[in-house]
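Re: the 262-residue chain
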Amino acid sequence: MADRIELSRESIAKDWLPRYTGMPLEEFGDYVLLTNFKSYVDAFASRFDCEVKGVDMPMQAASNGEGLTIVNFGIGTANAATIMDLLTARKPEGVLFLGKCGGLKQSTEIGHFILPIAAIRGEGTSDDYFPPEVPALPSFKLHKFVSEKIVDRGLEYRTGVVYTTNRRLWEHDQEFLSRLRRLTALAIDMETATVFIVGHYNDISRGALLLVSDVPTTPEGVKTEESDRQVTEDWADTHLELGIEAMSDIAVEGESIKHFVF
């Protein structure tokens, strides 16, 4: 009988990260931008004149050769958990999620940026990692770098709590809308809480810079293909540039962004 092969979590991640992204482990940088949009990866590759890997794979990735990598992991909390687990194969110094969200308050207008101070775990995926009582938090030092870049550009941003859900179609559900109002969340998305919790589980410093793309609590504010296209045209370049500048500065300054272990 052939010897039984023992598979460790690390060996699985080292095998699957290149399989999902088409990028060899040695090409991943110490700092990683995560996004839901292939267009962000294409824009990153164009800016740094580098190749997009994994075009025909579940995730696309590009590295600028200077320590910064971007990955389009897709949409939803299952994919967010997957990429945050697979990144343990590389053990990056920091990960910043560039996503879109729906604004839930009058103070969150389309085109505003949000740096979440926490995320409500309404998605269920994160329950596989920690009990519900464990809060989904970013690494605040990482957010400090991002906030400085936003202020330098004279742009609007908000801080607050984001609600993360697995539901994509909920705008019609009055009971769900009423619950959102009681929770007093600033915005709603489908990935942030999972990125934070799985990052905590894997000891990866993490953050999120969210772009308000719609105001779904009003009938006229529900996202459509046309409205989303307009937000992308107006704000996507700035969104990506803020992420690149913040993570590049962290790499240059070499400042630790890790928390002490709880």
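Helices lie at 9-21, 38-48, 77-86, 140-152, 174-183, 192-201, 225-253.
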